[in-house]
């Protein structure tokens, strides 16, 4: 078992007996347990009742969080012609086609998110081995392959989070900064859970959202009673 410092141990003091909490309590305790000097990110880990090795049980999507993520996102858009001007007018940091591919091949990756129009995806494929491992490859399922580049750029800039279940069936996603406070984090979490719930595969059997925990970057995780998740989504 890993050793933790004094501040971490103090953050979880008296919490060991609280196995499962309601969502409001878990978020409040996670935000309140922050003990570092920087503004930590609040994260959620959600265990889903799916088997990702089957393509029809892969859960992947994107969600526009009502309060954003609290960070500046640099956006690159692969596009041509009028779409380039449209992307830049919407706030894209970089927009182009062949020249953008050349920059990436040279190792210049000065962006955090990538959007592409469908007609240039063959070009994007040339740098797929570079973008893919970094989680930057555009994908239609997350709304990053679209001709509506203006709306896509605005959503990403405003704080859209992309999510994808891992091999173990666990979905990890950021919910914003500790400085947001519990109320805004709860609003973002509700939007995320609603999106994940709507993507439930028809082939998934049994309980869909099985386990959930909320934590900060450096802090402990606070487990949620899974029986309250649906009520929270519908409330």
Automatic annotation (TrEMBL):
Which SUPFAM superfamilies is this protein grouped with? Ribosomal protein L1 (SSF56808)
Q: Tell me which UniProt keywords the record has, alphabetically.
A: Repressor, Ribonucleoprotein, Ribosomal protein, RNA-binding, rRNA-binding, Translation regulation, tRNA-binding
Checking PROSITE patterns in the record gives:
RIBOSOMAL_L1 (PS01199)
One term under GO cellular component? cytosolic large ribosomal subunit
The source's domain of life comes to Bacteria
> What's the stated role of this polypeptide?
Binds directly to 23S rRNA. The L1 stalk is quite mobile in the ribosome, and is involved in E site tRNA release. Protein L1 is also a translational repressor protein, it controls the translation of the L11 operon by binding to its mRNA.
HAMAP family membership: Ribosomal_uL1_B
Q: Tell me what this protein is called.
A: Large ribosomal subunit protein uL1
Task: Please give the organism.
Answer: Desulfovibrio litoralis DSM 11393
Q: Source gene?
A: rplA
């Amino acid at each position: 078992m890993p050793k933790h410092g004094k501040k971490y141990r103090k953050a979880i003091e008296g919490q060991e007996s609280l196995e499962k909490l309601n969502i409001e309590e878990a978020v409040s305790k996670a935000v309140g347990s922050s003990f570092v000097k920087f503004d930590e990110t609040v994260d959620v880990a959600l265990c889903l009742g799916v088997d990702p090795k089957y393509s029809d049980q892969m859960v992947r999507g994107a969600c526009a969080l009502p309060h954003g993520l609290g960070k500046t996102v640099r956006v690159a858009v692969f596009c041509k012609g009028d779409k380039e001007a449209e992307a830049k007018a919407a706030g894209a940091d970089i927009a182009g086609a062949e020249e953008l591919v050349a920059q990436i091949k040279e190792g210049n990756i000065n962006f955090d998110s990538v959007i592409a129009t469908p007609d240039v995806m063959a070009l994007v494929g040339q740098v797929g081995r570079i973008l893919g491992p970094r989680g930057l490859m555009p994908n239609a399922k997350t709304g990053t392959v679209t001709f509506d580049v203006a709306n896509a750029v605005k959503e990403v800039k405003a704080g859209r989070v992309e999510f994808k279940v891992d091999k173990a069936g666990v979905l990890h996603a950021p919910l914003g900064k500790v400085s947001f406070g519990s109320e805004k984090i709860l609003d973002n979490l509700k939007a995320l859970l609603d999106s994940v719930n709507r993507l439930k595969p028809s082939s998934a059997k049994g309980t869909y959202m099985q386990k959930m925990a909320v934590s900060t970057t450096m802090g402990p995780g606070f487990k949620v009673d899974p029986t309250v998740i649906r009520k929270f989504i519908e409330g």
